[in-house]
Design a protein that fits this description.
Blueprint lengths: L1 H15 L8 E5 L2 H11 L3 E5 L14 H8 L3 E4 L9 H8 L11 E3 L33 H18 L4 H26 L6 E4 L5 H7 L2 E5 L10 H13 L4 E5 L4 H10 L3 E5 L12 H15 L7
Parallel strand pairs: 1-2, 1-3, 3-4, 5-6, 5-7, 7-8
The structure holds zinc ion.
Amino acid sequence: MRIYSLVLGAVVLTAWAVRSDADALHVVTTTTDLAALTQAVGGDLVDVQAIARGSQDPHFVDARPSFMRRMRSADLLVYNGLELEIGWLPLLVDGSRNRQLQAGEQGALNASRGLPILEIPTTELDRSLGDIHPEGNPHYTLSPLNGRQIARTIAIRLQHLRPDDSEQIGWQREQFVARLDTQISHWEQLTRPWRGTKVIAHHKQWEYLTDWLGLEIVAYIEEKPGIPPTPRHVRDLVRLIETQEISLILRSTFTDTRPAQRLAERTMARVVELPAAVGATDGSEDYISLFDVILRQLGTSFPTAEER
Ligand SMILES: [Zn+2]
């Protein structure tokens, strides 16, 4: 049976391989994570380009005319939603003059649909406070458990736009999810000893990851998402690190290095710099390798048994 499926797979692959590149669906995504997931399920049926670089803060991207030109001929825009791109995506969509990419059209896909979103505010936010997570925490791609659902959401839309390729897209999604699931089991086994560890984070962007791994974020360098810390808040954090014996401070490659560094200098805690998106650092070129790098970085920074 196994041999039969392998042979069948090879035959189907051969049949799929005759397509020309000109037929590829042109997809623009706002982030590199969504580009990687689209590529994983779309394979050679899609030509994908991300707007924000992996090393860039996705909340703040310049709405450049070159992005508008790229979007003008796109068949599909996949975006994060939850207002992650509120400061720049509406300008790009307008500037692209591509009606298909307007919200509600088949060419616009909000990838957050159907996901369990964390930190949805229960009271109305005062935006003058600068909170940049008004619809809940938008950094949901940082749990591989969500990667499965996002792959499904993207695959369904690709199938809708390319019904003739529905079978191939479905097969590619299954292959990707199977690989991801294998890795998830491996990662969970590897990180089991870390469960219950308390950490401090710079920006509210690691909650999906820490929820999955069972780590506890006890405080943030940013008092509110997007707001730099006051000297008083830094003093409070120093006290907290000392009283609760916190050994790790998580920050992404794009956040200001200084506040975390200052905290580390005044305490025994270590700063762990993590890629927060595909392509943010060497080796994190696709969705699965992103977690390999994140967990490797965390693993090398965790205190050893003697240090604890
Ligand atoms: Zn954020």
